[in-house]
Amino acid sequence: MTKKRYIETLLFSALNAFALLVVGCSDTDDSGMPPVIESEGEPLQVSRFTRYGAGDGTNETNYDNLTMWLFAIPTNNPAEKVQSGIVSFNGISEDDNLLTWNSAIYVKNSTTYEMFGFIPSYIAGTDSGISENGASSAKLTLKGLQSLSDDDVCIITGVVNGAPENLTPTDKLYRGVYEYQPLYGSTRYGVRLLADHIYASLKFGIYIDGDYDDRRTIKLKKMEVMSNQKAQVNAVIILNKGAGTEVGVPFTSFTTTSVESSDKASQVIFEDTEGHEIMTTAAVASMTDKQKAAYNMISPIYFGDWLKNDLYLVSTYDVYDKKGNLTRENCTVTNKLPSSKTNIDIGEQDSITLTVNPSYLYVLSDPDQDPKVVIK
Question: Most exposed: 79, 96, 165, 311, by fewest CB within 10 Å?
């Protein structure tokens, strides 16, 4: 869990504790029991969350550390208040094997809501929102949207009433359908959510040249993706509504303006103060699946379309001789990521292989060895 995620979870827990404290201090009636307070609804429960995959299919998501900022807009009761807040995955219950959630949103039985939102919850500001919500479209404004992230950035593009996770869903989940009606007292109280990627993604593999590995050991300490563009933008997305489609683009436009007060975009995708030894391709190929998973430690990078031709990778590493002596410390190299890799569509992912290779192998002394990170 990142520090930011930890702060969010801690804050949410603190708020819940405060709410319990207030209830616990309520006056009691003659029976000595606290008075019954009419419920303002039940916490929203997500029965299933699916990210729309590249191409024509959907992919179940990894729920770990999943946090969403959702908007619940009542449509059949104008007196109901529009709600927004964090809904975060809490785990799987032991008794019935169902997904459980911490929810800042409360929904009432048989009230119809339109559900919108973005993932992760901290990728944009809390002043983001829905406007111009009509029959055929709605405008989602994301304030202070981060241009780079190590999380898969998505928006909600479809909802439907959902059975619990361990039951077979009976309704198809379509894009462009946003209405949901909780039915408490039945198996269909939850909401199933479909999300679309709004960023492209790159994943990295890093290896060391075999000849150079005979002479030196390289330990990677940090990798950071950077851009000359602004770290934050204000984004306006026009979401399509309709009968629902299984494929196609879920929004008619996606426009951004830079937040001029923000810094240049950057995102650390790997950091290890002790250093992570870089292996040859042959050594990695001989590893077990578990060992490969531990070796492939670099997080993917997710980036907005406005950065695709202006992305750089900055790598920091130490160099050791084969006796384990540190010969060069905190070396850095900057590579511009090739447009052939970054010029990809929203929702697509490409791979980049990095090889640590000296600029020449005809070495006479340690300072002559000048390792570089080469993109292949």
Answer: 79
